UniProtKB/TrEMBL annotation:
It holds the Pfam family ZT_dimer. GO terms for molecular function: cadmium ion transmembrane transporter activity; ferrous iron transmembrane transporter activity; zinc efflux antiporter activity. One of its GO terms (biological process) is intracellular zinc ion homeostasis. Belongs to the cation diffusion facilitator (CDF) transporter (TC 2.A.4) family. It is found in: Cell membrane. Keywords: Cell membrane, Membrane, Transmembrane, Transmembrane helix, Transport. GO terms for cellular component: plasma membrane. It is a multi-pass membrane protein. Residues 215-292 form the Cation efflux protein cytoplasmic domain. The chain crosses the membrane at residues 15-37, 49-66, 117-139, 160-179. InterPro entries: Cation_efflux, Cation_efflux_CTD, Cation_efflux_CTD_sf, Cation_efflux_TM, Cation_efflux_TMD_sf, CDF_Transporter. This is Protein p34. It comes from the Bacteria.
Length: 304
């Protein structure tokens, strides 16, 4: 058997730390916009930003915990902590949507025209630009580092951008038509959108907690690495994979001649491990060597 694991870089942690003061800045800007206008849509936008701050702290805690090396009680590492954070992010988005529904429903009964709309819109656009750029950075970096918490944080902030766009449309319609009811109506529409986004994030994160297999592309890369580096063996079967944050766990059975010396079988395992880790960075392997004649239980990877 052969095992190994490569720890992730500190990049996700640095970005998660930077997200917290940035979220606080955006929150302050949006609260200022709401204070200037009295708009329920801008209040809804600010409420989501409050949730952003809490979620960003949760993401940082999860990333720090997930980066801890394996220990006696967690012998496969702490990678799944990031999925837990991502679920929390999804729940936080849902909570933000419910808060928006509450505020908008009250305003629907007694709609009032916001004041200083132009100033409020300008302030909100600045916050949206900051969020838009940072969401792109987090999602791209999170995917590169295979950090579910960082990707979830980026998607959460991206929903905030969508919220802000909806707010701008709602205030613009209220201003253009003279009907203040467009303000809470757009707030409700935005709430529905982020509720859908929150559920999607929860569903995706739960998949990670349930040991989702590697992608089809990654599986093909593993099979190719085996075919190119398993010379001397009779083949591989019972190949299984699972993803946990930045780590990939791979195990399979290597079939060899029953009279092959242990040293030769070990050399084949080392060769396979090196090739697969090159194809799948951060992989941890378990290779079970067995003699020919044992009936395989799973799919066999043939060498020709």
């Amino acid at each position: 058997m052969s095992t190994g694991h490569a720890h992730g870089s500190s990049m996700p942690r640095k970005l998660a730390i930077a997200t917290i003061p940035l979220s606080l800045l955006v929150l302050a800007i949006k609260l200022a916009a709401w204070h200037l206008t009295g708009s329920v849509a801008l209040l809804s936008d600010a409420l989501e930003s409050i949730v952003n701050v809490v979620a960003s702290v949760a993401a940082l805690v999860a990333i720090i915990y997930a980066s801890k090396p394996a220990d006696h009680d967690h012998q496969f590492g702490h990678h799944k902590a990031e999925y837990i954070s991502a679920v929390i992010e999804g729940v936080a988005i849902v909570v933000a949507a419910l808060l928006i529904f509450k505020e908008a429903a009250g305003e629907l009964l007694h709609p009032t025209m916001p004041t200083d709309i132009y100033i409020g819109l300008g302030v909100n656009v600045v916050a949206s630009l900051i969020n838009g750029v940072w969401a792109y950075v987090l999602i791209r970096a999170g995917r590169a580092a295979r950090s579910p918490a960082l990707v979830a944080d980026g998607k959460h902030i991206r929903t905030d951008v969508v919220t802000s766009i909806g707010v701008v449309i709602g205030l613009g319609l209220a201003l253009a038509t003279g009907y203040p009811i467009f303000d809470p109506l757009l707030a409700l529409a935005v709430g529905a959108h982020i509720l859908y986004a929150g559920w999607g994030l929860i569903k995706e994160s739960l998949g990670g907690l349930m040991d989702t297999a590697l992608t089809q592309e990654e599986s093909e890369m593993i099979r190719q690495a085996i075919m190119d580096n398993a010379a001397g063996s009779s083949g591989v079967h019972d190949l299984r994979t699972r993803r946990a944050g930045s780590a990939a766990f791979i195990d399979f059975h290597l079939v060899v001649s029953e009279d092959m010396p242990v040293g030769e079988a070990h050399d084949i395992c080392d060769r396979l491990e090196a090739a697969i880790k090159k194809a799948i960075p951060g992989a941890s392997l378990a290779i079970h060597v067995e003699p020919e004649g044992v009936k395989p239980h799973g799919v066999r990877v043939r060498l020709s």
